[in-house]
């Protein structure tokens, strides 16, 4: 639902006005003068929707600075975190802010938080709007939010406004802020390579700092099953890489609670019926083509058993498949309170199912692979819905050219499709069909692309600069730069009504060639680029793309993330930051 916006803005969450002033500003936003653009001392990432700072003034932050707020179980840890950060971070910007720091005004003593709806739970569409006012006079700043989750976003903004030692904050400042899209996430694959709990927590903390709100946990795949499911313990005991590479229920509870305290939902994905080779370690009788070589000798690509090494599909004709899978689904719904359940359903490879004798007999009697998938969906989706969950599938379940289900098997009111192929074309196909969409287009949002392939004895590399190496050596190369990510308009080519069905987007880090040693640099600061575009867009007040303007701000934000313990990769030499404009493509006039 739209709440306010210019010609190219689309709000995907219903946000009631939090004050008369905010309403007036929201309604007049398209007509605000350029003087409201961010100045160097107000370097907040993602860029807020509205900043009014007519005079570059600042004053000191009291050494006894406090934050007052009504009690909320998950907000209190955030308040403690941001109080400590505001008092002790003492951030030194790469470029000294151009603000006049008052020596006569009393220090800012208090940030007072007002929340309208303390009962609102962290779920899709929750109101994240906030406003922040820091006056030139008085000892109190005011943060107003509809929910605790909006208050968390405002606290992050306030923390980024503080700089220096001793600490100072801009004054005479007003910010009104709200996300363009309700779903802003990171997908992490923990099956192909394992990530420790602390790695996941660090990622969630960095997500919160970038105002992202969904950690999509692709926890299982053909390569390993690292999640301990209480009613099916053998899946992890035999399917994980080892006993020290298993996520216990207490680990999951810690991650989920950490997410709540950072305003980040934890969305589990148990991919099936494809990508389930690891299940065969415990239940070989329910998995087709498990532990077979993925590309039989002399076969064409169409005869492959998997799209990459690691074979195995659940057999929809075996009743035991559903006994095991429903146990998994039930336990996952208990472990994760998130109302979305991701069922995967991507990359059904015909050759794998055709390798199974029972499926061969089914096909010989006139059955089709699409009917097999429909049987699987019809046997599992109603059960997921009975647990009060909305089902998320990858786009393949409806759009695949060979194995797909009829739309009648996917109720639009209970099904969300996540797109990963063909950019905005597939997004349009999904919303034209009436489904809600989450955008993860591989052409823009796949963070693993461009790092080469992981196949051994690949003879294409025997030729100098041959094969796919010129395209980054991977199927989805080249590398997705932060500029590529920043410039992507996920609702491009959609009508206004179609765009309303786009919930938001997620970057994806598949882990064939990633593990904890490279996690931070693979994700950050490229994901920060998506975070800003989904929060406040990628265009300035005039409608012009602002990636060029964003470079200096992203440099500053990347530097601050590093100082906060996130090993984000650099986007330019430090010399460029120290010499503004000298690294531009075109000399500024």
Automatic annotation (TrEMBL):
The keyword Hydrolase applies. InterPro entries: Beta_hexosaminidase_sua/sub (IPR025705), GH (IPR017853), Glyco_hydro_20_cat (IPR015883), Hex-like_dom2 (IPR029018), HEX_eukaryotic_N (IPR029019). The active site is at residue 347. Keywords: Glycoprotein, Glycosidase, Hydrolase, Signal. Belongs to the glycosyl hydrolase 20 family. Pfam families: Glyco_hydro_20, Glycohydro_20b2. GO terms for biological process: carbohydrate metabolic process; glycosaminoglycan metabolic process. Residues 44-161 form the Beta-hexosaminidase eukaryotic type N-terminal domain. PANTHER family: BETA-HEXOSAMINIDASE, BETA-N-ACETYLHEXOSAMINIDASE. This is Beta-hexosaminidase. One of its GO terms (cellular component) is membrane.
